[in-house]
DNA sequence: AATAAAAAGTTGGGATGCCAAATATTTGCC
DNA sequence: GGCAAATATTTGGCATCCCAACTTTTTATT
């Protein structure tokens, strides 16, 4: 499988990182996973965000975000509140416990972020990031056949 | 979130790729996802592998592999067979339909593999891959606190 | 030979992700 | 103002992933 090893490598490496990271968060008694911590950071920054804001900022679809917020609400890290200006909307409020959990997680996340960089030059990390960022342009349309349209538009 | 943007970037980029890829496989009527296709390739290469072999080669744990094989078996792409030499073992046989599905998927996977490389130098892709490969050394222990032990052993 | 330890595969639980559909509400258009 | 279109959120379905526990079988140890 020489040609698809790149995709395989991306997926399996990512799985390794995610597992390691979330286990580290367990070991640190953070009480949240990486993605949940991300939500808490966003709310610490600016409390009372809507579900749509959060799903966009976290980079997941709205139904995924519903589950994430459900689980955070269940353990008392966030609360849902009706929006005063739009009856379709909820404003998600972080609790003090949620702030604390997020702060605890942050230490672990920083550490592992540093571990990722260990042994690599800054220029190399830049290349790594720019390739990842290219995915957002290349694979933004969720229709896998749309790349043909992109190529046609270049002519 | 400056420091953890790298991890966030890895996860969200990977999600983009995975979604795009699996949608492309749907569009191509491959009838399998990327991971399922990986299993079919392995079986085309060498049919009758054990579940343990497959889980190792695919890079997932054995219970994940059980689900994957269940779903492939359900659509008639593989079959489970008792091992003649070890009563704990099963040998997974790919069917002709499974081979066909894998071949169809391969075309799409190759295309997207090329898309990933588009716009980047070969040396850049090498750097990208070597950073991903470093995850397998750095994050191999699933205990996130084990990095401290590693550091201690260096003294 | 007997027994402890390890291995094979499955089940169950939890988390995360996307897609589609549904309902209530808001916005845009005529 | 009335109605079509869009939006906010949830629910349900499916897939993928890890962890823990379990039962049967095999291997290793005594």
Overview of this protein structure:
2 copies of one chain form a homodimer. By secondary structure, chain A is mainly alpha-helical. The first copy, chain A, has one domain (5-138): Winged helix-like DNA-binding domain superfamily/Winged helix DNA-binding domain (Arc Repressor Mutant, subunit A, Orthogonal Bundle). The first copy, chain A, contains 7 helices and 3 strands. Chain A has helices at 5-27, 34-45, 51-58, 62-74, 96-117, 122-138, 147-153; strands spanning 49-50, 78-82, 90-94. The longest helix of chain A is centred in the N-terminal third of the chain and has 23 residues, at 5-27. The radius of gyration of chain A is 19 Å and the shape is globular. The interface between A and B is large, with 65 and 65 residues. The structure holds a DNA duplex (30 and 30 nucleotides).
């Amino acid at each position: 499988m020489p040609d698809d090893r790149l995709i395989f490598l991306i997926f399996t490496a990512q799985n390794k990182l995610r597992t390691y990271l979330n286990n580290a968060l367990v070991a640190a008694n953070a009480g949240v996973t990486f993605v949940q911590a991300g939500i808490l950071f966003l709310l610490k920054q600016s409390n009372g965000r809507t579900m749509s804001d959060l799903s966009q900022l976290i980079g997941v679809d709205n139904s995924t975000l519903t589950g994430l917020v459900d689980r955070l609400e269940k353990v008392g890290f966030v609360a849902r509140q009706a929006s005063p200006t739009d009856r379709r909307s909820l404003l998600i409020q972080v609790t003090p416990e949620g702030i604390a959990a997020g702060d605890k997680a942050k230490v672990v996340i920083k550490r592992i972020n540093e571990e990722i960089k260990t042994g690599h030059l800054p220029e190399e990390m830049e290349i790594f990031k720019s390739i990842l960022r290219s995915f957002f342009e290349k694979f933004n349309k969720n229709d896998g056949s749309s790349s043909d349209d992109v190529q046609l538009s270049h002519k």
